[in-house]
Each structure stands twice: as structure tokens, then as C-alpha cells.
Amino acid sequence: MPSIALVIEFDGTCFVGWQIQDNGRSVQEEIQRALTTLYKEEIKVTGSSRTDAGVHARGLVCSAKVPFIIPIERVPLACNALLPEDVAVIDAYEVKEDFNARFNSEGKRYIYRLMHGTVRHPLKSRYSHFVTGRLDVEAMKKAAPYFAGEHDFAAFCATGGSQSTTVRRLEKVEVRCDDSTGLIEIEVKGEAFLYNMVRIIAGTLLYVGQGKIAPEKIPEVIDSCDRERAGKTLPPEGLTLEEVYYDWDKYRI
Questions:
Q1: Is 52 a known active-site residue?
Q2: Phi, psi at 71, each rounded to 5°
Q3: CA-CA distances (angstroms) from residue 242 to 7, 56, 117, 196?
Q4: Which of 33, 167, 221, 237 maximizes the CB count within 10 A of its CB?
Q5: Cα first-last separation, the chain
Q6: CA distance 20 to 15
Q7: CATH class assigned to 107-242
Q8: Are strands 45-47 and 56-65 parallel, antiparallel or unpaired?
Q9: Domain boundaries, the chain
């Protein structure tokens, strides 16, 4: 059967996450419903990431077997006519039959957004976590690179994960701040991630900014493999899956 890959953007506020669950709306369910209507045959999709409830995505990728090929440039418009306002297909590719959005992923890029200031901004609260009080952003910037490389990230894994190892490699962790708006972005890029790993890294960097952890102590926190020594798990609304990486030259038709 022909195969397609879809790039999905969604506001995660009203979703229980990507994966179909019994307790509410899922992005996977909405995409499958649209594709099933479009192709007039039940379609199942495989997602690149199982995002948590409330987490957003700008570039989640899913793959599906379809009974026939619709001109690929028409697929986003056709799907979006069948999707609710908080999820959309922003791109589509015809791919080789063996492509799998989950197993062929070569890495992901996330951004956790903090809104720092003295008063809340309700129009920004869906996509960032509001923080009051003084933050030492320069200390956060200094601490961030310590996370890069291959480490045992057991201290940055929430209970409930199903991983066989807590060793992961991060290519990049960077903190940026827009002084004019108070927006702080924590960008994390890596091959694979543990359960709530990015939100805990963001929480740890927040602790650095609040003076609770010194920047130079980050290697000790990592080496300890002790969840109690890292920061708290920040709320989901600040997290966005920005991009998933593939060798598209290998898989696209």
C-alpha cells in the first residue's frame, strides 16, 4: 500500500496528548478520523512522539498506509477541512512503504517557554509558564550547556516511563531571553528523550535562575541520578515540540 507522512501542528490545551486514550480527545484520534473520512476506509497513523496532555506541537510527524494516492499537495487542505480548529496538517509527503514516523526519527527539538514578569498575561498563558520574582538569566545560560552530550539522565525522568535505559544524548541545550517581553526560551535538541525529561530540565534551569542551584553544580546533579536533586517538572503548557528530524532524502518519493 502507498504510504504518506504528515506534519502536524496543534494546540495541546484541550487534548489528552497525541495518543488515543479513554479519558478525552487525542490528536491521533482526530487525525485518524479525518483520514478515514478522506479515504473512505479506516486509516491508522503512527506518531513520532507521544506528547503529554497540554503539550503543543509545531512539527509532530505521523505516518500512515493509505489505499490510494491523492495528489500530495492537496492532502493538507483536504485534511484540514475535516479537522477541528486546534489541529492542522501543515505539510504532507509521499514516502516509501517502510517509512515509520516513530522508528525512523533521528532526533527532536523542543522549546520550553517561560514568561517572566510581575503580572500575568492571559493571552500568552496557553503557550508559556508564568514565573514571578527575580531570575538570573545569565546563570541559566551558563548552566544550559552542561546538559549537552551523553549522560545518564535518571535525575531528569519522571516515574511512569517505560524506558530500558536512562542514558540519552543531547545535541544542544540553550537559553534565550527577550528582555523587551520577558519571554525566556529553553531549547533542547536530542536523539531521544525520557518521560518528562525536557520539562524537568526546564525546571532545573528555572531553579538555577532562582538561585536554588548554582550553574556549575549541574554536572553533579546529572551524575547523582537522583530525581530529588533536579528541579521540578514544569507544567505542560510551556512545552512545544518544534521539529522532528528525518533523512527525508532516504524516505521521500
A1: yes
A2: -45, 120
A3: 11, 9, 25, 16
A4: 221
A5: 14
A6: 10
A7: alpha beta
A8: antiparallel
A9: 3-104, 107-242
> pTM for the full model?
0.95
CATH number corresponding to 3-104: 3.30.70.580
Which of 11, 52, 247, 249 is the catalytic position? Answer: 52
Write out pLDDT tens, residues 117-140.
888 888 889 999 999 988 999 999
Q: What is the pLDDT of residues 138-197, one digit of tens each?
A: 999 999 999 999 999 999 998 866 678 999 999 999 999 998 889 999 999 999 999 999
Closest C-alpha to 197, from 242, 239, 244: 239
Q: How many CB atoms lie within 10 A of CB 53?
A: 17
Phi/psi region, residue 248 (left: phi>0; alpha: psi -120 to 50; beta: rest), is: alpha
Torsion angles phi and psi, residue 72, rounded to 5? -60, -30
Say if residue 74 is exposed, middle or buried (CB neighbours under 10 Å; 0-12, 13-18, 19+). Answer: exposed
Q: Which grid coordinates belong to 229? A: 536533586
Quote the cell numbers at residue 81: 477541512
